Amino acid sequence: MSTPGSTDGWVRVCRLVALGEDEPVHVDIGQCPVCLVRAGGALYALRDECTHQAVPLSEGEVAGGAIECWLHGSRFDLVTGRVLSPPATRPVTVYGVRTCGEDVFVHLGKGERDSVPG
Ligand code: FES
Question: Is the CB of 87 under 6 A from ligand 1?
């Protein structure tokens, strides 16, 4: 098992304490906008761009394992990115996210996630 770090594709994005429950946070990894969510004892990372009209999902609401776009109300599954409510029809990309100590790491090429300790 590899240790998260920039050399194996895992990028440190923030401290775990920076993520409040059900409070989405925007980060950029290079040119890629990422929406981080801490919900129900787990972390999620999705592309921070609604597939309907490309507004930031991080400005939406988190509830019931989904994030809702603030503009027209599309809902996306936090685990799979699948569309749960229209008008969006295409899933949002999900990314790998894990913790190492008190730091949060995201991998743009992996879909695995990690539970939040404690
Ligand atoms: S822009 Fe997100 S649902 Fe329309």
Answer: yes
